[in-house]
Amino acid sequence: CLILSFFSRGKLGRYPPWPGKIVNPPKDLKKPRGKKCFFVKFFGTEDHAWIKVEQLKPYHAHKEEMIKINKGKRFQQAVDAVEEFLRKTKGKDQASSHNSTEEKNRRNSSEERGKQSAGEEKRKASLSEGKVKKGTGEGKKRVSSVSSERGSKSPLKRAQDQSPRKRGRPPKDEKDLTIPESSTVKRVMTGTVAGFKWPPSVSEPAKDSDPHFHHFLLSQTEKPAVCYQAITKKLKVCEEETGSTSIQAADSTAVNGSITPTDKKIGFLGLGLMGSGIVSNLLKMGHTVTVWNRTAEKCDLFIQEGARLGRTPAEVVSTCDITFACVSDPKAAKDLVLGPSGVLQGIRPGKCYVDMSTVDADTVTELAQVIVSRGGRFLEAPVSGNQQLSNDGMLVILAAGDRGLYEDCSSCFQAMGKTSFFLGEVGNAAKMMLIVNMVQGSFMATIAEGLTLAQVTGQSQQTLLDILNQGQLASIFLDQKCQNILQGNFKPDFYLKYIQKDLRLAIALGDSVNHPTPMAAAANEVYKRAKALDQSDNDMSAVYRAYIH
């Protein structure tokens, strides 16, 4: 059943429609209370949600209207997916029709043969009819009467009477259109978010959100078991009976390309590999952005795309409501805030500062303190990803600090990323980001080590990659980095010098809590050797060269 879903957004209007198909929900997913709704799988995405009946429209009748409203890239992919689905369905219908025609012809032929056979039997019966006794005729009459009673019901009615199926239960072939009734949308599980994405509350639809973008609200707890619940866009933390706060995920309902930008003025400081992609996506989604970069020439392209130019960090902060910054390391982050004409000079009550740099917890805590001391609001929001993911608006954002500011940044985070996590107090995001990059950097060093070992033992590096791509380690990261090495292409997607910096900071984090990090320490030494071989400004995959020199 193809439909278009029109998402309500209260006084702010409506989201553009999105094509979907009514399907069966997972067995353990309960139907929410309230108005009648169906479980919808959206084309071109991995998303699905309970959608109210009044928000569903027939696909074919509203297709042209939908195409006029939404011209985003992902929307076009969704339309293509619908058309492909229709082509396959049409092909199946044609094949089924052809088979039905052949079957009908076979039945007709069989019926003709049956009629001829019946005619022969009648003629034989008429010859012997006179010899049949009267009593036999009366008995035959009674049997005929019973047969007549049985024949009074249609074949369909008889099938229904004879069927053991309970009243009200639909036949199996109606399965895809039937949504079981239930009382709640709640699931308790241990571990990571898995299975399916949670839809927004039926009573309070999510506002200004994107089905490719998901918010996660995390408060630290000592208990390993974590409760996941559907929540509204307000991201309200719920208290469990144990008193510990839970992690909550809010799925969203709009589509990439249909984000409603905040009316706040946005500033952005730092246009490196990551910052450039972020600013480009902010502009594409309609945000008002003022940019600054230490090398002013990098701003020119964004000025042409509609950005405004700030002469100093202080000027950007003073003229904007929310200012983001993304720079290379702790020293650059401190200089940007505390240096001449720095961020701190532009801070006054109500001004907001979001540091997206990957730095240590001590640095980000110091910056938060000085910003807040001037009446400003602070959020740390380092990002996981690379240049390509930044350009595609598919970064993962780890945030901590001012929760209200986190919510105010919603449309910005949707423009630049696919997922955001709120991790609680300042410093938590920095720690988590260093751990993530520690794992990534160590893995990259292991990949390089494996490829060089294959080479020196006479094994094919390409075959090794093919084997890895067919196993449990298969990933885009693995394939891309191996391809870089095999092709000798080390154009930076994530600078080697920055992953080494993150390894160094992660090792220091371990030292601060007396926790051993021997794997990271070994990987760090390999990256240090690669830097000594002038690989700092190449991609992290250039660590391979540390093994062959």
Keyphrases for this structure?
alpha/beta, NAD binding, eleven-stranded mixed beta sheet, 14% strand, globular, N-(1-d-carboxylethyl)-l-norvaline Dehydrogenase, domain 2, SH3 type barrels, 19 helices, five-stranded antiparallel beta sheet, 549 residues, nucleus, single chain, Rossmann fold
What does it look like?
It contains 19 helices and 18 strands. It is an alpha/beta fold and 549 residues long. Among the domains are: 2-93, SH3 type barrels; 253-426, 3-Layer(aba) Sandwich (Rossmann fold), CATH 3.40.50.720; 433-546, N-(1-d-carboxylethyl)-l-norvaline Dehydrogenase, domain 2. Strands 7, 9, 10, 11, 12, 13, 14, 15, 16, 17 and 18 form an eleven-stranded mixed beta sheet that branches. Strands 4-3-2-1-5 form a five-stranded antiparallel beta sheet, with helices on one face. α5 links the parallel β10 and β11. α14 packs across α16 and α14 (428-456) crosses α18. The radius of gyration is 33 Å and the shape is globular. Residues 7-15, 127-209 and 219-257 have low confidence and may be disordered. This is Cytokine-like nuclear factor N-PAC. Keywords: Chromosome, Nucleus. Its main location: nucleus. One of its GO terms (cellular component) is chromatin. Belongs to the HIBADH-related family. NP60 subfamily.
Overview in brief:
By secondary structure, the chain is of the alpha/beta class. 45% of the residues lie in helices and 14% in strands.
